[in-house]
Amino acid sequence: MPAFRCSAIFFDLDGVLVDSTGSVDRQWRIWARERGIDEEKVMAIAHGVRAVEVIRIVAPALDAEAEVRDLEKREAADHGGVAVMPGAIDLVRSLLAERWGVVTSGSRHLASARLQLAGIPIPKAMITADDVVNGKPHPEPYLKGAEALGVDAKECLVIEDAPAGIQAAHAAGMKVIGLTSTYPASALGEADSVVGELAQIQVAQDDVRRLMVRVG
């Protein structure tokens, strides 16, 4: 059974704490169709990356910031199929407030709406697309998360569902558990461990400052 000692745990949001895949896919596809863009080209890169970066790649002629505002308003209002991920609430409740945070490629407005819908408290450290210059797979989001909690990045563990997030966490010097909610295990091979559900992750307080995380 793999085990990790760490000082804090960071969760990606969509596909890790909240199951929003249906809403994300639905709104991205509507957006692409309305603008005459190949849906599959968009969906191939839409998960785990900031929306502004996706739009700059697939539609460089558009005003990416304006498009993101429109897209995320739609996503925030689209609750169809959005639900808390199994095991997420129990896992978060096992952690002290200063020992966990969220690092997401979505906006603060969208992240807050999704957490509230899922019944998960807004964490002390929540890094969103609004807080960074460089999104995942750049390490900036996770480095800012560690800074927000006042812990060394190398003392952090990340739970991610997308290759870009795994790359970002590793670039920040963090260990990563991959969750096969969005991508198959074969796509998450860079993770230090891979699980099919959050219930496979158990956390215990090792001492006043460190956590013991077991996977199995």
**Into which percent range does the helicity of residues fall?**
25-40%
Strands, total number: 11
Tell me, briefly, the overall form: globular
What's the helix count?
8
CATH fold-level assignment of the largest domain: Rossmann fold
| SSE class | alpha/beta
Assigned CATH class of the largest domain: Alpha Beta
What's the CATH H-level homologous superfamily of the largest domain? HAD superfamily/HAD-like
Q: Please mark out the parts with pLDDT under 50 across 5 or more consecutive residues, or reply none.
A: none
CATH arch. level architecture of the largest domain: 3-Layer(aba) Sandwich
Query: What radius of gyration results from the CA coordinates?
Result: 16 Å
Mean pLDDT: 94
Number of domains: 2
Proportion of beta-strand residues = 15-25%
Q: Output the strand order for the largest sheet.
A: 6-5-2-7-8-9
Spell the H/E element sequence: EEEHHHHEHEHEHEHEEEE
Please give the largest β-sheet: 6 strands, parallel
Termini separation:
5 Å
SSE arrangement:
Layout: E1 3-6, E2 8-11, E3 18-19, H1 21-34, H2 39-43, H3 51-58, H4 64-77, E4 83-84, H5 88-93, E5 100-103, H6 108-118, E6 125-127, H7 140-149, E7 156-160, H8 163-171, E8 175-179, E9 193-195, E10 201-205, E11 211-215
Parallel strand pairs: 2-5, 2-7, 5-6, 7-8, 8-9
Antiparallel strand pairs: 1-11, 3-4, 10-11
Helix pairs in contact: 3-4, 4-6
